[in-house]
Design goal:
The chain has 117 residues and is mostly helical. The protein has a domain at 16-48 and 60-105. Helix content is 67%, strand content 3%. It has a two-stranded antiparallel ribbon. It is elongated.
């Protein structure tokens, strides 16, 4: 028996340019979200480790460096597939994004929004 998703994909109409761009934006946003989530997990894990080492208390610069390194680890993990959070979000949001593809295609997933007045 044929796989249902393969049959559905074979009978589905081809995606428009707006739909393709909207799905790319969804992928980018989901990957960034997973990176932020992983960064928060790594920060929480880092806080469980004592700050005193063989050479004394960690300096502020060492803590900053460690935070930057953890952030890079989190971003690389998310780009490489991470823990599957981004993929799950994409599966769940795909239909909604395709239904509103014209607006979603022009959204900027890399934009930083200012919060507050």
């Amino acid at each position: 028996m044929a796989n249902l998703s393969a049959v559905t994909a074979a009978t589905a109409p081809p995606l428009t340019d707006d739909q393709k761009k909207a799905l790319q934006n969804l992928h980018s946003a989901a990957t960034q979200f997973e990176g932020v989530f992983l960064q928060m997990v790594m920060d929480a894990m880092r806080n469980t480790v004592p700050q005193n080492t063989l050479f004394g208390q960690d300096s502020a610069s060492e803590q900053t460096w460690q935070s930057m390194l953890d952030n890079e680890y989190a971003q690389q993990l998310s780009k490489g597939g991470g823990v599957g959070l981004a993929a799950q979000m994409e599966r769940q949001m795909r239909a909604a994004v395709l239904a509103n593809a014209k607006a979603e295609a022009h959204a900027d997933p890399d934009a930083t929004r200012r919060i507050g007045p």
